[in-house]
Amino acid sequence: MFYLLKCFIQMKTLLNNIDLNEALFGNSNIGFVPTMGSLHDGHISLIKKSLKLSNKTIVSIFVNPKQFNKKQDYKKYPRNIKKDLKILKKLKVDYVYLPKIKDIYKAKNKIKIKLNKQDKILCAKYRKGHFEGVIEVMTRLTKIVNPSKIFMGEKDLQQLLLVKRFVEKNFKSKIICCKIIRDKNKLALSSRNILLNKDNLNKAGKIAKNLIIFKKKLFKKKNLKDSIFKKKNELKKKYNIKIDYLELRDKKNLKLTNKIKNAKIFIAYHINKVRLIDNL
Ligand code: AMP
Question: Is the CB–ligand 1 distance for residue 46 below 6 Å?
Fold first, then answer.
């Protein structure tokens, strides 16, 4: 009966905060999936989890200018709103929130985010101001939407852990961690993959596979630091890529580690001017 009813209820598109407040009023157990659009199966897995665990699911699509440390990157970020809305309707999402910049940033209260020295690692080191922008937008979105749960992907593990720390400290909302979705070549899905041609997509898949096999073999290695250093040079040469970092870190506190237990390999690299990240 509930399922039948759900089939007839249309997804509501919320174009501003007045629409949003009206629609969400009186609802409890709201699941929120914040995205920048150009939706793929990674996003879809988060949405499905929210639909399962929440009374109402709201997906936001907002390409947040504050988290781009390069203007050109913001400009060329893939946007695909028509296709996105089709996907969300098909999934029977309750609400899609499409805020304008002023809906997010008009609130007068200034939010000053400062990362600790220990946080300035991995992408925080290579994309100055990026996570400050992410945490600010997530703080503002959480205040506006006031969800019970926020669904985020492990694909961006550093982002997830930072947002979890800031948001759960200041709000009642809980961050729900969702696993990485990969394509058939093991490449982690990302909206940026659209910017790659077929050859580079193949290359990126090979890099992911290479690292998955490498991680399995790391168990047997004595000097992990040295093995990772060698792997970084090998990947650079073999695939002609620029690597920002290739590091083994604890998956909970992101500290550098020499033990494979509870650790992940973190990589960020540039392939034909497109920056990809992964953790394996
Ligand atoms: P984005 O639209 O790139 O800002 O991503 C929105 C959310 O989807 C973030 O929580 C991401 O971590 C998550 N996400 C992106 N790609 C994947 C993926 N391949 N698997 C799982 N989650 C993902």
Answer: yes
Q: Which two tokens stand for residue 37?
A: 């659009």
Question: Is the distance from the beta carbon of residue 17 to the nearest atom of ligand 1 less than 6 Å?
Answer: no
220 and 123 in a common domain: no
Catalytic positions, written as ranges? 43
182 CA: nearest ligand 1 atom:
19
Residue 154 CA, ligand 1 centroid: distance in Å: 8
| Tens digits of residue pLDDT in 242-279 | 999 999 999 999 999 999 999 999 999 999 999 999 99
pLDDT digits 0-9 by tens, 175-200: 999 999 999 999 999 999 999 999 99
User: What is the domain range of residue 155?
Assistant: 12-178
How far apart are the C-alpha atoms of 166 and 180, rounded to whole Å?
22
Beta strands at 263-271 and 274-279: parallel, antiparallel or unpaired: antiparallel
**CA dist., res. 222 & res. 232, Å (int):** 17
Find the CATH number of the domain harbouring 245: 3.30.1300.10
- 172 and 228 in a common domain: no
Closest ligand 1 atom to Cα of 191? 3
